[in-house]
């Protein structure tokens, strides 16, 4: 490794924490995709905004690319550093900076874990409602970079809805203070929303002002067993009409089997082909009775074959683990992941066609489905058999993803619902965005990152 760029970096920013140990380069240079060999120049761990700005300015002068890094729980290769980039890890910038009780805002640094944000909000009697299984390891900066969704989008929306303000260090090293927590602000373009979901290609988020909400009302958690794929949306429609849904998540028998093998507990004696974990408002006896009535109505129609109702918070967590534990349970197979979205109204037809497509395309591979049915988001995990080498597996999955992208385009959907485009999906961006849109995106990127140092190769070349 040529140490001269690092020597210049050390000289430019005295006191900057740098890691160059091979184990650190491997650890920080990859995300959960595990598909690229990490090869970063080094790992920089700034402690404040001034150091982030200095790193970006050095990168422009030295011609070194930067890869912003949070918890690296991404699934699209957005945080991969495989071409000698400098990884900029925000893990040292992990504090709560302030709380405003009147505006109900929590100001945080980007490296703080989502779970720590939940705890900080709860300490003030409020809630930050974005939530998903990786809450203990993902960071707020990474959530913002991908506009992460999760299990309660049906009630609360994506990360975007909960960002009142951002501070962004652009690819030119300038510090932008975006929106400043205002509820109303019609003073030109809202660059805050350009930064959200930009996958680190426009700059580095260095501070976020988060909106907080009232804690959700007491909820009831149910696990439902379904006989067939095509009744999913019927059950969803019935529950949505009768209940205040907070979450509605589906998984297949295959996904459940992997979680059980990984240490989960099955509340049923019988194996069923499809399952739903749902959570709904149950603050009083009326709402609790409405949940049972919805269950009974669907059972009478033959749409639900069995069910389990959590009688405690511990039981609710056990039921949720059956859904949230899938990603961890299948990780050893290094799955190829598709994260797709269509309008909820288009979901029934898309589900039928996608299931048929994947069944024909992957006769020899195991496919594990799960997803957020209530917001039109499906996760498709194709498991790599031990006897199939990486190149063959990736080639076939890439080909089928192209077919899936075409299907999504016909249904007006998106090839990435909440994981971003990164390296994995950039060949299929055109199925979701038109040529004029992509050209505009390139122009925005050039304006904020004129020398192309911010996460190059991600989203588009």
Automatic annotation (TrEMBL):
Keywords: FAD, Flavoprotein, Oxidoreductase. The keyword ATP-binding does not apply. InterPro entries: FAD-bd_oxidored_4_C (IPR004113), FAD-bd_PCMH (IPR016166), FAD-bd_PCMH-like_sf (IPR036318), FAD-bd_PCMH_sub1 (IPR016167), FAD-bd_PCMH_sub2 (IPR016169), FAD-linked_Oxase-like_C (IPR016164), FAD-oxidored/transferase_4 (IPR051264), Oxid_FAD_bind_N (IPR006094). Residues 36-215 form the FAD-binding PCMH-type domain. It comes from the Bacteria. Its cofactor is FAD. Belongs to the FAD-binding oxidoreductase/transferase type 4 family. This is FAD-binding oxidoreductase. It comes from Luteimonas endophytica.
